[in-house]
């Protein structure tokens, strides 16, 4: 078999687990919680040469209701306000959890995202919106906001916290013989973003210890606002913004 014939996007051949770009997400419900944390605690989770820009933490919890290739699943992306000086600014993901094997595979193999299995969800109970993340039978994140009291735009929420449009990730892949294969900072953006509605109100955030989901190591010092929005977007190719193995 030639290299061209063997240049598959993912395995197994004929039924790949990871989806190729682009693929689209429709009917998405997102609750983003914000709070301020201990700056030194956040800096411990950033790989150099990334720099921390503020003490904000964002926890995005998604109901992905209709996604190409992956179907319906839920995801939780924790972000820190970071920059690669002179090259990129965005939200760096130290922790990311979801309940889709294809989503975990695509995120780890392609983006280098630190994806692990977990059970996030956005739920509605009367006049409250609830975001949660469960792993190992422990609810490690519980956040709430009042149900649709004040309209606000995504840009207004970014102005209150930080611009998370670009997602930065530390991609770590080794060869089977133990040698280093890939060490990169990658970035991804979204296209065809359409917002159906968005709301901003104060939020509560509670974290519980779990050594397999150690978000609690970013302690809540001051709660901010939450943004709840519905919409759709398309995931497209990203770029390598820093390659640790490239000489010169």
Automatic annotation (TrEMBL):
Protein name: Acetoacetate decarboxylase family protein
Source superkingdom: Bacteria
InterPro entries: Acetoacetate_decarboxylase, ADC_dom_sf
One Pfam family named in its UniProt record: ADC
């Amino acid at each position: 078999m030639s290299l061209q014939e063997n240049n598959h996007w993912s395995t197994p051949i004929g039924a790949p687990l990871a989806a190729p770009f682009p693929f689209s997400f429709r009917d998405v419900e997102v609750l983003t919680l914000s709070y301020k944390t201990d700056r030194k605690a956040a800096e411990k989770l950033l790989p150099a040469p990334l720099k921390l820009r503020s003490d904000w933490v964002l926890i995005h919890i998604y109901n992905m209701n209709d996604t190409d290739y992956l179907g319906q699943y839920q995801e939780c992306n924790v972000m820190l306000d970071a920059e690669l000086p002179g090259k990129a600014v965005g939200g760096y993901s130290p922790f990311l959890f979801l309940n889709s094997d294809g989503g975990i595979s695509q995120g780890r193999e392609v983006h280098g995202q630190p994806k692990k299995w977990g059970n996030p969800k956005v739920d509605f109970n009367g006049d409250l919106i609830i975001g949660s993340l469960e792993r190992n039978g422990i609810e490690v994140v519980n956040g709430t906001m009042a149900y649709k009291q004040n309209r606000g735009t995504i840009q207004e929420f970014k102005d209150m916290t930080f611009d998370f449009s670009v997602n930065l990730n530390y991609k770590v892949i080794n060869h089977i013989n133990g040698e280093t294969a890939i060490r990169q900072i990658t970035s991804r953006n979204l296209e065809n973003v359409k917002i159906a509605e968005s709301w901003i109100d104060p939020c509560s955030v509670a974290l519980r210890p779990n050594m397999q989901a150690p978000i609690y190591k970013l302690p809540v010092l001051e709660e901010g606002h939450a943004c709840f929005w519905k919409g759709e977007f398309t995931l497209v190719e990203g770029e390598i913004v820093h390659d640790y193995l490239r000489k010169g």
